Amino acid sequence: MSISWGSRGEERKEGRKGKGREGKGREGKERKGKERKGKERKGKERKGKERKGKERKRKESDGWADRDEVIEGYEAEASGGITIKLQSPEVLSFDDYFLKIRLETNKRNPWFPEFWQHRFQCRLPGHPLENPNFQKNCTGNESLEENYVQDSKMGFVINAIYAMAHGLQSMHHALCQGQIGLCDAMKPIDGSKLLEFLLNSSFTGVSGEEVRIDENGDAPGRYDIMNLQHIEANHYDYVHIGTWHQGVLNIDDNRIQMNKTEMNIAQP
């Protein structure tokens, strides 16, 4: 029995064919791999955009509130709109403190001169914190009441600081057992343990409201419900029509003003 081998030329042809098939197979795999990676990347980008969109919606849910700049130039179109804003009473005690501060008497805050220069766009010649970017000199007689409007979330900021203080106090009471100052059991501060005390804290807020932190780390939800109304010619204003407090809705339907004007709606 004899076995015959093909010629070297035929071997080379078969070799080239085999390599060609291997090359095509490899190219096909690479192409499929690139397509798969492309689809995965597009999928991730799409999910990322969807996630950002959801986050944006969550962040902007109470962003309109009673802000005039949101509707500037579109008052007629926005008229009748119902908005919500975080319920935060004006903190009168803060105004009483803040508006009486003077440059020459506020010595406890080393950064106050820097704030003063920025607030009034002036410089303090010879001061260690002098800001040379401002041309005019500060007189020290400037008043913080000038163009002052309290931030609508001031109460939340103060209550957040109170919450941290109450959490630290509870933690100190439990771990230090009456010892004055920071005891060894609290060194260094364990953030996860502090969180446990924060979640169990409750206190009276700066405006007299009850503040308690639930298991999710959230304080009670309180919202004012506003309605943008046409008051008189070329004048629109937000009118308080109700409240939402921890799942309980109170709204005065008789105070709601709807938008009855005809508007041209652009067709897609």
Write the layout of secondary structure elements.
Elements: H1 8-59, H2 75-78, E1 82-86, H3 92-98, H4 112-120, H5 154-176, H6 191-199, E2 202-204, E3 210-212, E4 222-232, E5 235-245, E6 248-251
Antiparallel strand pairs: 1-4, 2-3, 4-5, 5-6
Helix pairs in contact: 5-6
Description:
Pfam families: ANF_receptor. By secondary structure, the chain is α+β, with helices and mostly antiparallel strands. Helices cover 39% and strands 14% of the residues. The strands form two sheets. A four-stranded antiparallel β-sheet has the order 1-4-5-6. It has a two-stranded antiparallel sheet with strand order 2-3. α5 crosses α6 (191-199). 7% of the residues are buried.
What share of the residues lie within helices?
A: 25-40%
**Alpha carbon gyration radius:** 33 Å
The end-to-end span amounts to 82 Å
Name the overall outline. Answer: extended
User: Secondary-structure element order, as H and E?
Assistant: HHEHHHHEEEEE
Order of strands, widest sheet = 1-4-5-6
Average residue-wise pLDDT: 80
Number of helices: 6
Category from helices, strands and their pairing: alpha+beta
Tell me the quaternary state: single chain
How big a fraction of the residues is strand? 5-15%
